[in-house]
Design goal:
Bound molecules: adenosine-5'-triphosphate, magnesium ion
CATH architecture of the largest domain: 3-Layer(aba) Sandwich
Order of helices and strands: EEEHEEHEHHHHEHEHEEHH
Helix content: 25-40%
Number of domains: 2
Structural class: alpha/beta
CATH class of the largest domain: Alpha Beta
Strand order of the largest sheet: 6-7-8-3-9-10
Length: 262
Amino acid sequence: MSDDIILDVKDIGLHFGGVKAVDGLSFSIKKNQIHALIGPNGSGKTTTLNLITGVYQPQWGEANFDGKNISRMPRADIAKIGITRTFQNLRIYNTLTVLEHVLVGDYINSNTGFFSSVFKLPAGRLDEKRAVSKSMELLEKVGLADKAHSLATSLSYGQRRLLEIGRALAVKPKLLFLDEPAAGMSSNEIEQLIELLRLLKKEGMTIMIIEHRMKLVMNVADWIVVLNYGKKIAEGTAEEIQNHEEVIEAYLGKSHQKISVA
Ligand SMILES: Nc1ncnc2c1ncn2[C@@H]1O[C@H](COP(=O)(O)OP(=O)(O)OP(=O)(O)O)[C@@H](O)[C@H]1O
Ligand SMILES: [Mg+2]
């Protein structure tokens, strides 16, 4: 694995009965780049992410992260070595504030044992202060600091997606996957997301977004991988992908989604 590659996926596959959700897929992710995984509905994007993050185990093939084969690793261990994701279906809790959502994400990053946190032993209290200030910094970054003490349920759909990213960042991932971060976002929120992704890249983060909103993909992705029926049909730069015949056909022919960057 060459030095600039952080994740190398080789010929992975998972079939659900007759459905070839992921069917012999290979691609790699380079450090400090923004990648996009695109394709029509049902083409296997989320399943690919589930295979990499240990939600499912591949029936064949393997994925190597930072030189380690992670294809049979338990999900919690994959998270611990630095792969974090957001979910296509948002995970927002009714009773938690915006800040608390990020604190929960940060909790597994804390060195303090569970009991000292619960019983508020001095080490726990110190850690709690630090966690709150780190979480506030993250909320600042995703543009939600002024909402810190509101219930997360008071946020717009797009703001909830930004909160999910804030929560994912709390565990300081080496590789961040975002599953449709712009779904339900307004134009303004997409602009905000584009700025955030650019900032994260500047800070050294490696990211792969799964996304239908081409305005976002074409604006931020250094490299795009295109799936159709669980297979890679193309990969390249935004310009190469926009003009790729098979990609245009997959979008227009099967899901009526034009490759429009508007
Ligand atoms: N747990 C499952 N059991 C059975 N079939 C599944 C399961 N998960 C996914 N599939 C099927 O696998 C295929 C790929 O699904 P996947 O969710 O990965 O697509 P996707 O590219 O993320 O689509 P979308 O853009 O709609 O999110 C689909 O045909 C889907 O119905
Ligand atoms: Mg999906």
